[in-house]
Amino acid sequence: MTALWTAAEAAAATGGRTVGDWTATGVSIDTRTLSPGDLFVALKDVRDGHDFVAQALEKGAAAALVSRRPDDVAAEAPLLIVPDVLAALADLGHAGRERMAGRVIAITGSVGKTTTKDMLRVALGAQARTHVAEASYNNQWGVPLTLARMPADTEFAVIEIGMNAPGEIAPLSRMARPNVAMVTTVAAVHLEAFGVIEGIAREKASIFEGLEPGGVALINADLETTPILRRAAEVHAAKVVEFGQTPGLPATLGEVTLVDETTVIQASLHDMPLLFKLAAPGRHLALNALAALAAVAAVGADIPRAALSLGAWEAVTGRGKRERIVLDPARDGAIEMIDDAFNAGPASMAASLEVLAAATPEGRGRRIAVLGDMLELGPDGPAMHADLADLPALSKLDLICTSGPLMAHLDAILPVDKRGPHTETAAEMARILPGLLRPGDIVLIKSSKGSRLSLAVDALRKLGQAIADRT
């Protein structure tokens, strides 16, 4: 494999001291996913990464980035010794960005940043050497890790930037130094930390502070907080491009048609008419796709080719992925599960319920929603959960199951004919859910990640696997 960091390069980037002469082909922070040749970064989190250095070296790590040599590691073992491991990882990230001559797109937003990032992976990856953040690596270690893993010959890079508290986005954007910076949307997420949605908008808008000279800002024009985004963008960007459903925008979303498992999109991008499709349903996905294509245009890539490539994009686990789970092989009895258990706020909950409402069950199957708590909404959280009862999509659902203390506020006002079981814990819902289902059902499982409703997802997957094992 191509060398990513030599010992000399990593030492120069971090100011550290090397032991041995080594070459790394990757960077890892987890021994469970480490590949031979990786530089293992011994971060301190729930556990101290120094406790795993010996294991990393045994698994074939090229070296370990440490602040001290662990007692169970030989004196001659290949190391890069620095005063502070997280700071050194940031230094590697800065150096990785510095040596890359391509163009960088940075994405933030309350909802849709991971989806838009993954769409750009497909749209740009078909055209050039493209480097994209893994999973939701978007925090103070995820962003520098993504940059440190970036090959020097990368032509396009897509960096996701998230936040949990004020002041987190701007430093990460300044590290990424994007040529294009995007805010997908601003919604009532992390209200506990910000109090009001305007505070969230100002934090999201701080992504523009890292823009390179001549940089482009992409903003959602359909929001109450759009003026906040626009003002910040105009300060830092050479060009501001707005996208949304409002007619006359540089990137305008036109008609969106949901056909079971497909979204057909009509749009206009810089006066170019577009007609393309996604192999996944969702009106919110259409806006994410348009934003991705606006970023494609901003970095000078081929727009029609990117739009065509988006037909191959697929939702990932926990973020709307659809799976068929066989319950009765003899009768071809199966359910369809929509796994969206990793992120939830009022806006994304409404979008996911609309997808379920548009889905077509098989035979006598039902549309069933299994909903867990939306977290970090502050004192208005109970009311926001109850307000879900007013969503038009609920009228097309057959059964609504709820889990968690906040979702109890929705359960209390649901129509009796649609009210499914309510459980206090996700573990209890995971236990009872399989017994509620019958062949043909389409089941949406939607919650914030911290609500742990992914346990119900796992329970359904295991149900299908158990049947497969018996046949």
Automatic annotation (TrEMBL):
Enzyme Commission code: 6.3.2.10
Keywords: ATP-binding, Cell cycle, Cell division, Cell shape, Cell wall biogenesis/degradation, Cytoplasm, Ligase, Nucleotide-binding, Peptidoglycan synthesis
Cleavable signal peptide: none
Main location as per UniProt: cytoplasm
Gene Ontology terms, MF aspect: ATP binding; UDP-N-acetylmuramoyl-tripeptide-D-alanyl-D-alanine ligase activity; UDP-N-acetylmuramoylalanyl-D-glutamyl-2,6-diaminopimelate-D-alanyl-D-alanine ligase activity
Positions that bind ATP: 109-115
Residue intervals of the Mur ligase N-terminal catalytic domain: 25-93
Mur ligase C-terminal domain span: 334-448
Magnesium listed as a keyword: no
Subcellular location: Cytoplasm
Catalytic reaction(s) noted: D-alanyl-D-alanine + UDP-N-acetyl-alpha-D-muramoyl-L-alanyl-gamma-D-glutamyl-meso-2,6-diaminopimelate + ATP = UDP-N-acetyl-alpha-D-muramoyl-L-alanyl-gamma-D-glutamyl-meso-2,6-diaminopimeloyl-D-alanyl-D-alanine + ADP + phosphate + H(+)
Metabolic or biological pathway, per its Swiss-Prot or TrEMBL entry: Cell wall biogenesis; peptidoglycan biosynthesis
Record InterPro entries: Mur-like_cat_sf, Mur_ligase_C, Mur_ligase_C_dom_sf, Mur_ligase_cen, Mur_ligase_N, MurCDEF_CellWall_CoF430Synth, MurE/MurF_N, UDP-N-AcMur_synth
Residue ranges of every copy of the Mur ligase central domain listed in the record: 107-296
GO BP, one annotated term: regulation of cell shape
GO cellular component, one term: cytoplasm
Keyword Zinc: no
Pfam families named in the record: Mur_ligase, Mur_ligase_C, Mur_ligase_M
Record's function text: Involved in cell wall formation. Catalyzes the final step in the synthesis of UDP-N-acetylmuramoyl-pentapeptide, the precursor of murein.
Family to which this protein belongs: Belongs to the MurCDEF family. MurF subfamily.
PANTHER family in UniProt: UDP-N-ACETYLMURAMOYL-TRIPEPTIDE--D-ALANYL-D-ALANINE LIGASE
NCBIfam families: murF
Identification of the protein by name: UDP-N-acetylmuramoyl-tripeptide--D-alanyl-D-alanine ligase
Gene: murF
